[in-house]
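Suppose you are handed only these lines of text.
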Amino acid sequence: MGSNLFDLTGKLALVTGATQGLGMAIAEGIGKSGATVVINGNSSQEKIDNAVSIFKSQGINSYGYRFNVTDEKAVVNAVAQIEKEVGSIDILVNNAGIIKRTALAEMEVEDFEQVIKVDLVSPFIVSKAVVKGMIERKAGKIINICSMMSELGRNTVGAYAAAKGGLKMLTQNMCVEWAPHNIQVNGIGPGYFATEQTKPIRVDGHPLNEFIINRTPAGVWGNPKDLQGSAVFLSAKASDFVNGQVLYVDGGILATIGKPSNE
Ligand code: GCO
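From them, the structure of the protein bound to D-gluconic acid can be written out as follows.
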């Protein structure tokens, strides 16, 4: 294995929700640093196969597994199958997530619970299934994809912010319980990125589009590839004494109260 602090050669990473968007970009970055990448999705086998073939065309050793990250039985079976067919999981990125933009006063309880289940409970379910092997091997990296909404709220994303705020605290508690086993658990908190998830609020003329560009010191929407460096860092030897932290990759938005639009 390379002596480079950021070399992931010989490592195996499982990335949930990695058939598009931030998850796919993160998986690509980890793969390009030498890791074998297992892509998870639950939408369609075709999307998973497509992502795997794109990675293979880039020289990334890649496999795809379709399972629902909110279904503990399916997750336990999938992790066992991956560890049997591909190898032990060294790096877990809990990226799978959904958002429902609805005012809290109007939100159906079922919709609120679904967001919490996917965005907060599933990282617990998948981590619990994977961490057993990491504890046995006394080594592992877990990265929870939090959000700037782990720190700030916004109208209509209350369920999502509650889940991502909880995920920040779950990250800290995973650190407390698993650091003694040489497992590092950290979060990445994306700001506003150009993905399918944000497409509805990114269209020209949408009030949020201009607001977010003005509110972000960098003055642009993030590109999913902007997350690859942080993901590689938190997957690699370079972060072996970093634990329980959330690394915000947000163009500076959390650093400012904003500025007058005419400034
Ligand atoms: C929204 C956005 C945000 C971003 C991201 C920020 O509706 O405000 O979707 O939630 O996607 O999560 O980190």
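What can we learn from it? The chain has a mean pLDDT of 96. The chain has one domain: 2-193+224-255.
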